[in-house]
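Hello Y.,

Per our agreement to keep a running log of every chain we model this quarter, I'm adding this entry. I've kept the format consistent with earlier entries: sequence first, then predicted structure.
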Amino acid sequence: MSAGDDSTAAMLTDAAHMTIKELADAFEKVAGDAVAVRAEHRLAFLAGFGWWAKIARTARGVSAMARGELTSEATPLTRVIMEHTLALKWLLDGAPDTVFALEEEGLENQRQLIEEAAKAAWELPDWVSGQQLSTKGDEHPLREEYSSFLRLTQLYGEKDTYVAYRLTSAHVHASATGSKAFLNEENGTISLRPSPTEDNAPLTHAAYCLLQATKMMDPLLVDGPLQSAITRSELLFGRSAHMPQRVPSPPQKTPVVPTRVQVTSADLDDAQALAAIVSAALRRSGAELGQEHVSARRRRVMLDVDSLPPASPPAP
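Predicted structure for the entry above:
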């Protein structure tokens, strides 16, 4: 690494530390004050506040560990921050429905914990209670969206975020990457290392996610009390944080019981030519066609229609 590279890395590191401090301090100020929440966002704010707190406090932890030359060991914490940040966007975007889905998911996890504890003859703390859940057939439909981080990144088109998440995952689980991190191989000789190669990616990613989360929470509060901290942080960090946007869902096809269109003529060749015209017209309209059946004896062509496009609204 050149001296210029070292200088750039040091600047990025300093900027990330200052950004995290600025935004974590802003979080603590809001948490310690009698903050005014917009009435229409009260449920979303209360549901998301804990995740915002997790992001802010964990980012401060990543900063502290990086200053102690433990950036590699802080990588699992950055993974926690990444997951909570995108989940926070999902929660706020879909509230109140996402809040209800989250609460139901929490109750389901609690029920599973109680069952597993019973199998292991493990006495759970008093605060763990087995609340009654809805029957299995009544799960909230949005629970599927929250089922995995991969699913969230797909909903928001955040392919690069999932790649970064996978990279950090190698430092969370017992992996081959972690096994080799403290070994150095050069010219066929393997030597032991007391620490892995340090880089600033976990730190800068933590700062960026905290900036995103702070920008998500500010509109929920009266008079934008976080705005000045956000502006200063973007100047310190040298970039603004984009807001993940949910990818529009493709138009839903109208499911139909497979329909068969029959084309008959006095001559089989004519029937096939007409069937080709009908097939092309159906496909242009957005229909999905299945198998084609030809009856030479009856001089008939049959087209299976698997689905039709959604009906257009009537003209005003």
